[in-house]
Amino acid sequence: MSKTIIHTDAAPAAVGPYSQAVAVTGTKTVYLSGQIGLEPGTGELVSENFDAQVRQAFANMQAVIAEAGGTTANIVKLTLFLTDLSKFAAANAIMAEVIPEPYPARSTIGVASLPKGAQFEVEAILVL
């Protein structure tokens, strides 16, 4: 896969660990369903703690990515869903630990609720 980061000063700069846009070439596109902070063995939320849910959601996402034959470097687009946008900075910090630069394109959406009472969900698009 070849990634080209698209950036223009004619649009606002990224306000977190993401790129304005990403152009890719590759052989296979993978669309990952949303992952929340469920423990794989129990199907229950890892914790009521926001950071723990974010870390587990990203770990679940990484497991699906590995099964698809990729790594987090293959992500070209992420969508984050938060039930409390005041925790945006915490989600950004954890994402920056997990996702390598150059960062993928990303959207963050505040939602009223998520399955199983989760506080965070992440979905991804990869090009392998």
From TrEMBL:
GO cellular component annotations of the record: cytosol
InterPro entries xref list: RidA (IPR006056), RutC-like_sf (IPR035959), YjgF/YER057c/UK114 (IPR006175)
Pfam families from the UniProt entry: Ribonuc_L-PSP
Family as reported in the entry's similarity comment: Belongs to the RutC family.
Domain of life from the UniProt record: Bacteria
Organism this protein belongs to: Orrella dioscoreae
Organismal lineage: Bacteria, Pseudomonadati, Pseudomonadota, Betaproteobacteria, Burkholderiales
Name of the protein: Endoribonuclease L-PSP
GO molecular function, a single term: deaminase activity
